[in-house]
Hints:
By secondary structure, the protein is of the alpha/beta class. 27% of the residues lie in helices and 31% in strands.
Amino acid sequence: MSTERVRIALQKTGRLAEDSLGLLKNCGLHIDRSRDQLFCRIKELPIDLLLIRDDDIPGFICNGICDLGIVGENVFAEAKASGDREFAATVLERLGFSLCRLALAVPENGNINTVSDLANATIATSYPNLLRDFLKAQNIEAKTLVMTGSVEVAPRLKIADAICDIVASGATLAANNLRELAVVLRSEALLIRPAQQFSGEKEEIVRRLLSRMRGALMAEDSKYIMLNAPRSAVNEITRLLPGCDSPTIMDLNKEDMVAIHAVCKEAVFWETMEKLQSAGASAILVMPIEKMTA
């Protein structure tokens, strides 16, 4: 029986927290937690969860408090850009969810229309290190006003000319009469770990978890498709199947007709099904995939 346990740091609230816990659930892991519980134990694998503030996660990994962390790329990149010599966390896997972007935004009816117009402006942000590096790359001198929340209100309060903040749908910008000027960083959820190796036992736990995660993410994006088609249309239909490497083709009890079964690793849209029908496919069935291995 394993005596080692892997500790994973997760954001305690918010969309990334929900998406991270959803991924673990899709990996067949059950988490019992109360609303205010910050430490949880998983039964199926020797794994513990520590639920903390998102900007604490990189430091917990670097300092060996946790073995793995799921964190937004924006938070990871900001911590790395701080220049801390002891920053020793690396990206183990890009997880592809909780997509957003760190963007510069300005008032809709203001006089800042290009990035170069930010020269000598005051920019409010919670990401001073990433903003500093972006402005340096653009050869722009500007003043940074560091805020820990509600950055979008800074132009309305006349304490900043622009903001640099996280944007998902853009609804918050619109509500504050702001428009996006430039993207500083595109972000997604990352699985991170310390740079140093674990013990062999702990590395095996991480390997098993990573395998489940990859399978769960593949299953989420994939669909199982079944259809009938004339044998003469097999090549064209195979070409139309999104993200399919090699479908299974079986003879039907009808002359010159076959059944095609395939795992499509990309979305199957109604437009795709219409194109398949036009190519000769019939009885098209698209089903979700619950589990698969990478």
